[in-house]
C-alpha cells in the first residue's frame, strides 16, 4: 500500500470539492483490499461516512429511494425491501459474510470490482507479471490462456473475460434500478442497464461514472402489482462464495401466462447480465417447463465459454429454469 492523505467530508458539497485526484471511501470492504494489492493507488481518500445518505425512504410514486451509504445488512433486512423487493434482499443475503454486509454500502457494492485472480495479482500489468488489460491496458489477458473456470461466458471480449462479482447488482438489474450521481457536471441519473460497461477494447473502464462523481442514491421503481421475485445463486460452497451462476427474476403470471417478466443473471457475465432474449421468450407464453427451457436456451445462445468454464452454459440454463419455476409458481 502506498502513502495517501485522508480527508473526512462533512457534507456532499465538501466531498465533491475534495474529489479531484481522490477516491471516496465508505465501508472500505473493496477499496482497502485493492489498495493493499496495488490495484488502487489514490493520492487522497475522501471519507464519506458523515454524509446524510444512509436512509431508505418511500417515494411519492410508490418506489423506494436507497441512500448510497445504506449498509448492505440494513438494506437486506428492511421491511419494505423484504415485502416488495424480495429479490434484492435475497441477493444481498447470499453474498459475502455478515461482518462484510454490516460494513459494505449500496454505493460501494455498485462499484465492486472483479475477483479475477490475474487482476488481483499484485504484479499484474507489470514487467514480468501477468498480463491484465483491466489493470494495465495493452498488457494482455492472462485469463484467456490461464485458469478460467470462474470467468465470464457472456459479454466477453478478446481483451477481458473477467466476471462481475456483485449479487446486489444482478437483483437491481432485474428491478430496473436508477442510480443518482452528483459530480463536476452537476446531478444526473443513470439506468443500471447503462451503469456497468462491457469490456470491449477498454476493459479498464467499468462504469459510466466520470472523475469526481459521487453516487448519492439508488431508486427502485414502484413494485409491479401481483409480481413475485426471487434470487437463486449457485456456487462451490454454501456461504461466503461468489456465484458460478445466479438468476434474479421478477414475474407476474395471470391465467397461467406470463404477463410481466424481468430476467438478470450473475456469475456468467462481464457485467450484471439482463437477458432480454430470455424475457422475449417468456412474455405472453404459458408458465410451463417447456417455456422456461426455451428461455434458458435463448439466454445462453450467445455464450462463449473458455477452456475451463464450458460447464457454466448448462449450469446457467438450469439456474434460470429453476428460478423461473419458483417465481411463477
Account of the protein in words:
With 329 residues, the protein is an alpha+beta fold. 30% of the residues lie in helices and 20% in strands. The protein contains 14 helices and twelve strands. Helix 13 crosses helix 14. The longest helix is centred in the C-terminal third of the chain and has 18 residues. The mean pLDDT is 97. InterPro entries: CO_DH_flav_C, CO_DH_flav_C_dom_sf, Diverse_Substr_Oxidored, FAD-bd_PCMH, FAD-bd_PCMH-like_sf, FAD-bd_PCMH_sub1, FAD-bd_PCMH_sub2, Mopterin_DH_FAD-bd. GO terms for molecular function: FAD binding; oxidoreductase activity. Pfam families: CO_deh_flav_C (PF03450), FAD_binding_5 (PF00941). Keywords: FAD, Flavoprotein.
Shape: globular
Query: Main beta sheet, described?
Result: 5 strands, antiparallel
Oligomer: single chain
Parts with pLDDT < 50 across at least 5 consecutive residues: none
Order of helices and strands: EHEHEEEHHHHHHHHEEHEEEEEHHH
Strand content: 15-25%
Q: How far do the termini sit from each other?
A: 51 Å
Radius of gyration: 20 Å
- The averaged pLDDT comes out at 97
Strand order of the largest sheet: 4-5-8-6-7
By secondary-structure content and strand pairing, the structural class works out as alpha+beta
Fraction in helix = 25-40%
**Total strand segments:** 12
Counting DSSP H or I runs of 4 or more residues, the number of helices is 14
Domain FAD-binding PCMH-type: 1-225
InterPro entries: CO_DH_flav_C, CO_DH_flav_C_dom_sf, Diverse_Substr_Oxidored, FAD-bd_PCMH, FAD-bd_PCMH-like_sf, FAD-bd_PCMH_sub1, FAD-bd_PCMH_sub2, Mopterin_DH_FAD-bd
GO molecular function: FAD binding; oxidoreductase activity
Pfam families: CO_deh_flav_C, FAD_binding_5
